[in-house]
Amino acid sequence: MPQYKLIYFNSKGRAELPRLLFAYADVEYEDFRFANREEFLEKIKPNMPTGRVPVLEIDGKLYPESGAIFRYLATEFKLYGKDNVEALQIDGVVETMNDILQVLTKIFYENDEAKKAELQKKAAAEDIPVVLSLLEKLAGGDVFVGDSITAADIAFFRTMEVVLSIVTGLTLDNYPKLKSINDKVAKEPKIAAWLAKRPETPN
Ligand SMILES: N[C@@H](CCC(=O)N[C@@H](CS)C(=O)NCC(=O)O)C(=O)O
Q1: E strands of 10-161, at which residues?
Q2: Model-level pTM?
Q3: Minimum-distance ligand 1 atom for the alpha carbon of 52
Q4: CATH of 84-187, one of 1.20.120.140, 3.30.300.30, 2.30.30.280, 1.20.1050.10
Q5: Looking at residue 126, what is its pLDDT?
């Protein structure tokens, strides 16, 4: 088994999905969190391949980009479908979900409070429900692809965590398949154990 170290801020952000994959696959890794932005700028950033994080270190070599880390780990942990067609379906789900993340990023980085509130309202009423309806169509039943949990389901769970932390007034009650996927992932014993023990951070 390779030696894994995941390098990121002491926050969930772009590192939480890989952390959930490690948890679900029950694979050991070092969850390396630097203390603050000063430490990042002085000690970490200059040594990262692109100056940004997350970075996954595998046996001493550094690899950037959260999407690449997600696909690599999911493939290593056999969570990326049983064949290339299932991988294609998983990618379809992940790419659709990226439309939600784009909406959320806009809200997250908006500094004007009035504009932020407007964006949040529109996201809850329009932007996110549109994408959730598409995802409901892609869902197979209580998983997106095949007959057991894949990286698509775990990525959806993580996306919903981010959605609910940024946008209020949204539920999955109108999306029965998405609701069962979300509940199923949350109830997986290894995921539940990680959720209970992970460091508490605001985002
Ligand atoms: N496309 C990259 C974006 C990485 C990124 O923007 N990381 C932020 C933290 S979430 C960062 O390192 N910011 C500090 C900086 O750019 O100096 C990915 O998905 O990994």
Answers
A1: 30-34, 55-58, 61-64
A2: 0.96
A3: 12
A4: 1.20.1050.10
A5: 96
98 alpha carbon to ligand 1 midpoint, in Å? 16
CATH number of 4-77: 3.40.30.10
Taking the CA of residue 41 as reference, the ligand 1 atom at the shortest distance is 17
Beta strand pairing status for 55-58 and 4-9?
A: antiparallel
**Tokens linked to 32:** 């390396």
CA of 172 to the centre of ligand 1 (A): 29
Q: How far apart are the CA of 54 and the centre of ligand 1, in A?
A: 7
Task: Collect the ranges in the chain with pLDDT lower than 70.
Answer: none
58 has which bridge partners? 4, 61
Residue carrying the six token digits 């952000």: 13
